[in-house]
């Protein structure tokens, strides 16, 4: 087997790590998805609005205050 | 294989977020709603204008609160699970459960505690509506700064560890974190809009409830996700001895 195909030499007691290349696609896609979710809980309808009106803001009103986000 | 492991951990992280969200919602409903109602009484007595009620108070206290809390906990649990994937084996020689606990501690301190020290949670009727844009920008900026300083401190600790040893490097990185955060707290603009006569005990109770929700969220995430992550990763570490050799005394005796 070619040397390059062999897994990188790992010290026998090295801790388990997950390769960054395996994490990055998930981090990019779900990281952005999660931030959009947080935007709707934390800011939608006050500073900026994707939907018109105060429906989203009023619906999550109590959670927004108690989770520490700025509100009216 | 590794990508599948990341996916499994992400899914388990978000399931953990849903479970902790139910706990946090219960806590918020029982502990947080009482000061929030008191603030609304103050607001009703002092309000100059009243818009139409789009969502009834009953819905806001139950389904609305649950929606906000569950979205929040699921989102942060997903992000924390991805942070766990990066942190595992890279922040020190810790197993999955300890790593999950440390990631949860980091999340609590950087995402909540540090921003809370500068811009604490406020009940309704405390803030001026016309400063909302500025307050929102400052709060998200504070979270971003705090998380970035936290990551920088971890990287600094890693760099210092070979020279200073793990213990001293951890202390040095922690001191650097506190100093950098302290500077950010000192130089960001303050917000103080407390109206005349607003009951102080309501503000205190509200902030204690808000802090309790976050403590409950991050602590239960650390414990539950650590358990689930270990069950994902443990078979790999035992069936692949080249990845992580078991200490000799723990090896099973030959038959």
Shape of chain A: elongated
Unreliable sequence segments of chain B: 240-246
Tertiary shape of chain B: globular
Report, as a whole number of angstroms, the end-to-end distance of chain A: 65 Å
Number of domains of chain B: 2
Strand content of chain B: under 5%
Number of strands of chain B: 0
Q: How are helices and strands ordered from N to C of chain B?
A: HHHHHH
Please report the number of helical segments of chain A: 3
Radius of gyration of chain A: 22 Å
Helix content of chain B: over 70%
The major β-sheet of chain A equals: none
Q: List the chains of the largest interface with their residue counts.
A: A-B, 46 and 69 residues
Question: Which band does the percent of strand residues of chain A land in?
Answer: under 5%
Number of helices of chain B: 6
- Helices and strands of chain B: which structural class? mainly alpha
Q: In terms of quaternary structure, what is this? A: heterodimer
**Average residue pLDDT of chain B:** 90
How far apart the termini of chain B lie comes to 32 Å
Organism (chain B): Streptomyces cupreus
Protein name (chain B): CbtA family protein
Transmembrane segments (chain B): 9-31, 63-86, 98-117, 137-157, 169-188, 208-229
Pfam family, one (chain B): CbtA
């Amino acid at each position: 087997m070619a040397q390059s195909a062999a897994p990188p030499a790992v010290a026998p007691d090295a801790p388990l790590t997950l390769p960054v290349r395996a994490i990055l696609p998930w981090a990019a896609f779900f990281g952005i998805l999660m931030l959009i979710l947080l935007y709707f809980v934390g800011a939608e309808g006050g500073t900026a609005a994707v939907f018109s009106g105060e429906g989203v803001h009023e619906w999550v009103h109590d959670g927004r205050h108690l989770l520490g986000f700025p509100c009216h | 294989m590794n990508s599948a492991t990341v996916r499994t951990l992400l899914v388990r992280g978000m399931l953990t977020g849903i479970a902790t969200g139910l706990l946090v919602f219960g806590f918020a409903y029982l502990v947080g709603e009482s000061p929030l109602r008191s603030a609304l009484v103050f607001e009703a007595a002092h309000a100059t204008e009243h818009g139409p009620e789009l969502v009834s108070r009953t819905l806001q206290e139950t389904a609305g609160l649950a929606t906000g809390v569950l979205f929040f906990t699921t989102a942060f649990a997903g992000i924390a699970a991805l942070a766990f994937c990066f942190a595992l084996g890279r922040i020190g020689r810790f197993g999955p459960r300890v790593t999950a606990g440390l990631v949860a501690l980091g999340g609590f301190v950087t995402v909540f505690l540090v921003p809370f020290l500068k811009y604490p949670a406020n009940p309704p009727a405390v803030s001026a509506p016309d400063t909302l844009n500025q307050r929102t920008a400052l709060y998200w900026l504070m979270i971003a700064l705090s998380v970035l300083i936290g990551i920088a401190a971890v990287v600094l600790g890693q760099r210092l560890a070979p020279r200073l040893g793990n213990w001293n490097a951890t202390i040095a990185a922690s001191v650097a974190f506190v100093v950098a955060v302290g500077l950010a707290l000192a130089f960001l603009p303050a917000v103080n809009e407390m109206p005349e006569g607003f009951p102080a005990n309501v503000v205190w109770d509200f902030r204690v409830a808000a802090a309790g929700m976050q403590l409950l969220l991050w602590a239960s995430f650390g414990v539950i996700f650590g358990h689930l992550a270990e069950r994902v990763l443990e078979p790999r570490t035992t069936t692949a001895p080249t990845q992580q050799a078991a200490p000799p005394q723990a090896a099973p005796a030959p038959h």
